[in-house]
Amino acid sequence: MNIPRAQLLIVALALAAAVAGFVVARGMLPAPPAAQPELHSATLLNAPRPLPDFSLLDQHGEVIGPEVFTGDWQLVFFGFTNCPDICPMTLHTLTAVRAKLASQGRQQPGVVFVSVDPERDAPAQLADYLAYFDTSIVGITGDQEGIAKFARDMGVAVFMGAEDDHGHYNVDHSTAVFLVDPAGRLSALFRMPHEVDVMADEFTRIVETRVEARG
Amino acid sequence: MMQRRVLLVLTMVAVLAGCGMGERQRIVIEDTWVREAPPGARALAGYMRIHNHSDAQLALLFANSADFERVELHVTRHDNDRMRMEQVDHVALLPGEAVEFVPGGMHLMLMGPRRELKAGDRVRVELTFSDGTATDVVFPVRDARSSR
After folding, report:
1. Are A17 and A106 contained in the same domain?
2. Does residue B19 lie within any of the structural domains?
């Protein structure tokens, strides 16, 4: 065989370029996503979604915005203080998830409770209510419009029930627990039923996956 | 002594009541409890199990308590991720079966507490059934915070 030298050189250069390109690309591109953890209760978002801007009140009457979600992982739940069944049940579960992770020396998320009935859940009411479960829980209330927009932006549908003769009404809301990452991005959600052991394990696995994906 | 007399009267009442009833209680209610409310909450939830030991279909129609302004029968329904609390006008009790009132499902919605209720307190609830009978049931108040 008699291949001209020039042709050989071109092939060699092309090969070298391909190898170099591959090496450079490996360094520049983000690492391939770590294997998705097997999750039963949680649904991971393919791409974490930044939370919208908002200005609402915490349970101490202080104005708060999206910065409340930065720094730590947070479990976010929507509810209202006059909801006697699901809301206390879920808040018990979330505080138990924290306690379980703490007892095992694992990273714990914070808990944020957003009132979907801000007209009745004034900051002081929310403060007493939340302290019953865990003084570290952050409560969010404010004006009905601001809460409705925040809920919508999180993908939570809120339906105000009609008031009955006794002035009582219900607020239908999502029972999902949202997981927000330390960059303030919606990362996953946990659907019912919320079981302490499952949520604690899946929280840890999600955190580990995200750390691997970044490293 | 006074105490003895009370005991005697109670025994007689029990015997008389026993004579009036069939060999077996038609409706048996157990595992009653009310979730202690966090401060400020104006609604509490009550849970129990109702067995219908009779051959007839019965229904729970009403619940009343002197400790609350109003008591309703509620069920928490989940449609996808949306939670809805619905009032029901009766709870069917099929013959030979039991109905569970549990967190996240059927519950007594106890509204407007007339006194502060703490874990260890007892709430009396009168339950009225479709056969015209009414039963006074005691619901202990329990602190359901699982982590303590």
Report:
1. no
2. no
Residues 6+ apart with CB under 8 A from A200: A97, A100, A101, A104, A106
Q: What is the ipTM of this complex?
A: 0.75
Q: Which of B124, B109, B122 is CA-nearest to residue B74? A: B109
Which residues of chain A neighbour B42 with C-beta distances below 8 Å?
Answer: 82
For residues A56 and A145, membership in a common domain is answered with yes
Residues of B in contact with A193 (CB under 8 A): 104
> A166 at the B interface (CB within 8 A)?
yes
A133 touching chain B per CB within 8 A: yes
Burial A56-91 (b: 16+ CB within 10 A, else e): bbbbeeeebeeebbeeebbbbbbbbbbbbbbbbbbb
- In tens, the pLDDT along A125-163 reads 999 999 999 999 999 999 999 999 998 888 876 666 667
- Tell me the shortest Cα–Cα distance from B134 to chain A, in angstroms: 25
Helix (H, G, I), strand (E, B) or coil at B146: coil
What is the domain extent for residue A102? 42-214
Q: How many independent structural domains does chain A possess?
A: 2
Contact B110, B34 (CB under 8 A): yes
**Contact between chains at A85 and B38 (C-beta distance less than 8 A):** no
Residue B59 Cα, gap to closest chain A Cα (Å) = 22
More confident residue, B36 or A160: B36
CATH of the domain at B132: 2.60.40.1890
Task: Report if residue A36 sits inside a domain.
Answer: no
Between chains, do A173 and B82 touch, taking CB under 8 Å as contact?
Answer: yes
